[in-house]
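hiii, so i know i said id send this last week but things got crazy w the move. better late than never?? heres the sequnce for the chain we talked about at the cafe, plus the structure i predicted for it. fair warning i was half asleep when i ran it
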Amino acid sequence: MAPIVLQVQNFFVYSDSPFLSPQYKSVIVSEIMKTDFNISQSSVSNIYIIINGSYNESLRIINDSLKYLNEARLLTPSDIISLYQQLYFNGSENSSIEKDLIKINQLYLNLTSLRERLLLNISEFMFQLNVTYGLPLGKHVSANSTLIETFRVYYFIALENYSQINASRIAGYLTFKDPYLIFFGFNNYTNETLAKHFLEKFDNYSYLIFLLTGKHIPDQTFGSSYSFFMRSEQNASSFPVSLSNFHRNDSWLFIVQVPSNESLNNVNEFIDNIKAEVTGHLPIYARSELYTESNLKVIDLVTFTLVGILLILLLRSLVPILLLLGSAILGIEIAYSVLIVLHLFGYKIYYISGLVIPPIIFGITIDYSLLFIYRYFEEIRKGRQNPLNEAFRTAGKAAIFSGLSITLAFLSFLISPSPILKNIGIALVAGSLSSLFPSISFTYTSLRSIGINVLSFPQKHVPNPSDGRSKYLRFMINHSIKRKYYVLLTIFVVSIFSLWVFSTHNSNVDVNEIVPSTSEVVVGLNDLNNYFNYSLDYVIVPGSLNQTHNMVYMIAKKAISMGALVYSPVSLGKIVLDNSSAILNQFYSNGFSLMEIYIPYPVFSNGAINFTNWLISQGLLVGGSNAQRIDIVTNTVQTYYSFTLPLTIIFILIYLGFLLKSIAVPVRLTLSLLFSSLVGVAVMYSVFGTVYWLSPLIVFALLFSLGIDYDMFIVLRIREEEGSEDEKIRNGVEKTGLVVTAAGLILSGAFFSLMAADMQFLREIGFAVGFTILFDTFIVRPFVVPAVMSILGKYNWWPGVRSNRSKT
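okay and structure toks below
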C-alpha cells in the first residue's frame, strides 16, 4: 500500500488505559486512594524475565540488554524479597501498639529465617557452639584472631556479673547475633545430632522473644501468642516471598521496572535482543503491536489478491477490475489520512479501529462502485442514449443514500458514553464517508474518460451482469414467495435458536486473542504461574469501622483461603486478626477502609480476572489494573447492547422512514439485519466456543451498518419496477440480486482475508462477518426479504403513496 497506510500503524494505541472513564469504579478507587490514603497507583510497569543459566550470567545478560529501555530499573530476587518484606513495616505513622506488634512480628520473622539458614548450614552452627562453649573451657578452636578477641572481650565483661555458663552464652549471642546458642551448655555443645534435632523441632518463640525483649506476648494481642506465632510459622512470613519464588531448576526470574509510557518499540527491541522469556502487560501490548503490523500487511495483500480474483471471475474485463481496485485503495488512503489528521488534534487511534478500516473500505467502496458499473453495463445493453448519466441517476443515488445510512448508523457510536466505542465510531464514520468519494466521483470521472471498447477489453462487449446467479436468484425468489409463511416460521425458529446460543456462551479477555498463543509473552505468562506472580487489587469499603468490620473480615478470610495475601484493618498477609486496633491508622481513613489484596495470578491472566470479578461481585469498589480492564470490558459491552445498538436501530428507522416514506420497510429491514447478525454471532460461538469480548460487538456493529447497503439496493430497485407487488419484488430482487451477490462475495472475501492473520480475535471477526455477509447475501436477501415483503404486500409502502406504475 501507499506510504500513508504504512505510517498510520505508528500511531496505533494498544492499551485500554486511555479509554478509562471517570465514572468507572476502578477510577473512583484511584481517586479515593490518592486523596484519603496518599497512595498513587504506580507510574511504572513491570517486565518479567524468565532466563536460563547461572545467577551471575543471567544478571549480566539482563544488564547488557537494559540499554534498549529508558529509565529501566532492574530488581533482583533479593531486591524484591527485601522490598516486600519491609513493605508494611516502614514509612507510616503507627500507634505504639502497632509499633510493638510490628517489631515483635519482625523479630519472629528474623528468628525463623535464622533457624532455616542454620539448618541448611549446620556446620556454621557447630562452629558457633565450639567458639561459645569451647573457648571458655580452654579448647582449641580454629577461628580468626579478630573473632576470638571479640568473643573474649564480651566473655570477660559478662563474667564480672554472671556465672561462667551464662557469660559464655551472652558472649556467644553478642558475637554471632545467634540466640539459639543459649539453649546449649558445656556438656552437649559438640553433639551435632542433638543440635540439628533441636533446630528442627524448635517452636518456643514466645520464650525466646521474652529473653531478647523482656516482653511477654499477652494472649489478647492475637488471641494466643503461641497460636499467632504458629500461624506465622506456617506462612513463613507476613508476605511469604522467598527465593523459591524466583528460582526453578536452572531458571531465574528477574523484574525490570520501566515507566508506564515506555515506547512499545523499545520493549520489542528489548525482547528481540535478550535470550529469555519476557512477559507482563507492557510486553503483551508491544507484541500485539508487532503482530498487528505484520498482520496488517498480510491482510492487505490477501484482501487485494482475493478481491482481485473474485472481480476477475465476476467481470472478466481488465479495466473495470482496475477501476474497482483503484477506488478501494483510494478510499483506504483517504480514511487513513483522515485518522492521521485527527491524531494531530488528539485522537488516539485504537488499534482495532485501525484494523477494521481495510476490509470495510474495500468492501463498501467496491460495493458502491460495482453497483455503479453494473448499472452502467445494464444501461449500455439497453441502448440508452446517455447510459452513464442514467446509471449515475439511479445507482449513484442508491449508493449515496446507502452510504449516508451507514454513516448515520455509525454516528450512534459517537454519542456513546463508552470512550472505546466512541473511538471506534470515529474510525467507522471516517471509513464510511471515505468510501463515497472514490466510489461515486472517481468511478464516474474514470468511466467518462474511458471508451466502451477499452472498458470491455479483452472481450468484444461489456460484461453481461447476468450469469448463473440469475437462475439461483429466480429459484430462491419464487420458492420464497410461494412458501412465504413457512419461510416466516423458519425465521422464527432459527432466531430463537441463535438467541439461545448467543445468550448461553461467554466471551473472554484472554491475551492469546490479541497475540498468538505461541508468542513468547504468552508462553512466559503461563510459566510465570510457577514463580512470583502476584497482581495487586485495591478494595475500598465505605463506612465506619463498626459498620464494615464484618464485611472486611469475611472478604479477607475468603480471599486468603483462595491463596491471596490481604493487608487490611483485619489482616496481615495470610493472618486474619481478632484484634485489629493495631493497624487501623494505615488502612482506615475518612470513612473508608482500604484492603490491599495480592492475587496469586499474573496481571490480566484468566485467574486474576476471575478473582477480581469475584471481588466486584461482592459489591465492593475495586481498583488496580485487573479492575480497570474489567471496567472497560463490562462498560463497553453493556453500553453497546443497552445504548449504542438501540440508538443505531432508532437512527435507521427514522432515516429510512423519512427517505422511503414507509414504516413497514424500515422495520422489516431492521429485523432482517438483526436476524442475520444473530445467526452470524451464533455461528461464531459454535465454531470458536469462546470468543474475544469485542468480537460479537464488532460483528453486530458491522452487519447492522453494512447490511443496509444490500437492502437499500433492493428496495430502491423494487420501487422502480412495474407490475403487481409480487412481480415488482421478483424483478427488483432478481435484477439487483446480481450486484448484491457480487458485492456480497467481494465484501465477504475482504473480511475472510482476516483469517490469514495469526491473531485469534481477527480470525473470529473475519470468519463471523464473512459468513454472515454470505448468509445475508444468498439467503436473507433473495429468500427472506421477498417472503416478508410479499406477506406485507401494499403495506410495504404505507403510509406513503404507492408507485403509480403498479398494476391493479
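btw Confidence is low (pLDDT under 50) at residues 88-98, 218-239, 803-808. thought thatd interest u
miss u guys!!
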